[in-house]
Amino acid sequence: MFKKILIANRGEIACRVIKTARKMGIQTVAIYSDADRNALHVKMADEAVHIGPPPANQSYIVIDKVLDAIRQTGAEAVHPGYGFLSENKLFAEALAKEGVAFIGPPAGAIESMGDKITSKKIAQEAKVSTVPGYMGLIEDAEDAVKISNEVGYPVMIKASAGGGGKGMRIAWNDDEAREGFQSSKNEAANSFGDDRIFIEKFVTQPRHIEIQVLADSHGNCIYLGERECSIQRRNQKVVEEAPSPFLDEATRKAMGEQSCALAKAVGYASAGTVEFIVDGERNFYFLEMNTRLQVEHPVTELITGVDLVEQMIRVAYGEKLAMTQDDVTLTGWAIENRLYAEDPYRNFLPSIGRLTRYRPPAEVAAGPLQVNNNWHSDAPTGPTAVRNDTGVYEGGEISMYYDPMIAKLCTWGPDRPTAIEAMRNALDGFEVEGIGHNLPFVAAVMDHQIFIDGNMTTAFIEEQYPDGFEGVTLAEADLRRLAASAAAMYRVAEIRRTRISGTMDNHERKVGDDWIVALEGQEFPVTTAADRDGSTVTFEDGTTVRVASDWTPGDSLAELSLNDAPMVVKVDKITSGFRLRFRGADLKVHVRSPRQAELARLMPEKLPPDTSKMLLCPMPGLIVKVDVEVGDEVQEGQALCTVEAMKMENILRAEKSAKISKINAGAGDSLAVDDVIMEFE
Questions:
Q1: By CB neighbour count within 10 A (0-12 exposed, 13-18 middle, 19+ buried), where does 69 fall?
Q2: DSSP track, 411-425
Q3: How far apart are alpha carbons 29 and 432 in whole angstroms?
Q4: Contact (Cβ atoms closer than 8 angstroms) between residue 10 and residue 402
Q5: Does residue 288 have an active-site annotation?
Q6: Among residues 187, 210, 228, 288, which one is catalytic?
Q7: pLDDT (0 to 100) of residue 507
Q8: Structure pTM?
Q9: pLDDT by residue (tens digit) across 505-522?
Q10: What domains can be seen in the chain, in order of their start residue?
């Protein structure tokens, strides 16, 4: 077996590879840019080599710099992770010339399958069902419009070398095709160094389901079930699960066998993923093959017990697969939520900054992977599993130079409802502060009836949140639970406060039992009766809630029991109450005496400043271009400017008809959140 491998990547995937290598007794080498000098993957590896400035095109994807790091450290093999050089055939060929093993497929398979245009042609030749489209060279935007009309709107404009949602646009008309072609081309060039674009028919109401394959260099190939990846935004996956709640065994078998046939056709060896679009009748169409490890691979590991990174390393070393298709069993259900540094309240735009607080829920081992001792054997075991693949730590910085992913939170349960409930509780206990993040949004998805029923499509976010995510409205029962919790916690805080004050004043003031809990525009009069084991909170209608917890004032997380049902709430102190975050909701909860509540009702409401005549920068980013001039009259939906952040171009449009009175920023300017780009009359 290899004695030392280099991980040509960063962040959570580099950390993930290091964990398996460590389990296998293999030493690891990390590479890092200036921005990642203090990154977690650098701290975890046995050795680390600096390779250049923060931009990836000056560090992580410069093949010569990676080769220099290999020579310096004597690494025998390289795991590329995903993104960066993972699907670059020139990198695989360069490693071969150096006599270094590439922990991935042969260069020929990368070339044929990694390129979306070529892979589609090969799939057609192999009689794999494919989506109609145009695979030839598209010269310019007008050519894109012509082809789009021939294929028939709506169309998907995609980067041939793309991945991770980069360089992808949906166009419903000529204007969107023209605009989408140029944006896709720009993003493709910036992210992959390859600006080739192709166009295919966009299947409406589709589900995105992919098959995990595993092949060796001895002609063996198996499939490890499927993953449902339909919940996406900007064509980037947000929630994944395995298996799919939609497939039946016959469809799973057909998709798996086609995937293996395709892999064998190109001499594939390693872990790979064949992605399909599946319509409502379970007809499936080949989309692309990812010749690398997928971001969402943990859910497959959790239901099969197979450590995919370990298998990739063994295949690269020349070993045969130790299992056959008959050995593959799918046990239980696994859910993955991707935690991104983005602001769901600002249309999911990227957020950067320092993680002033980062406390993921405790990991718990369970399921097939735990039984096979393939993952976190030192974690406590339970009826459900919690796994968090991450590359950050408290005090670390989320950089503008790389993908905004913070972590991948996964749960496993013996069935889908149990796995979902485990995820809800894990999200409630996940503490992240200092940056915008999508925890509230994914928490809301876990409670959405369409997701619970398993009826989602790739249009889920667009259809269910057409005006963006504006927070969660909790049911009345949840509001009452929070009111009872707040009353019990506030009483504890008041007792502590009066005891401290009483020590100074040589007397202790009495804390009352009657409170008015105000939240979400409602008031709940309650009475609390405390004892050594907790509090009994009685509502005005006579309903009682028994609240037990070891929470103490100052704790940012409250683990409570309400009528013996567990509940986890994130807590911050505010005047006369708390800021409570639960199931995606973020609430200010005031707990006042009856007299204080009476006076509070007389206080005027503070209104936010009027910014309706300003275009504010919705995220930290770089102005790529400004499309208007002072004096221009613009219409609703018209493009005003383009802001680039975290390798994505974001076009800002007019929300209504207006006249430009002032422009404060131009192309090349770096802006912070809420900086004023332009003003309107």
A1: buried
A2: EEESSHHHHHHHHHH
A3: 29
A4: yes
A5: yes
A6: 288
A7: 47
A8: 0.82
A9: 444 557 778 999 999 999
A10: 4-103 (3.40.50.20), 133-201 (3.30.1490.20), 207-462 (3.30.470.20), 476-600 (3.30.700.30), 614-680 (2.40.50.100)
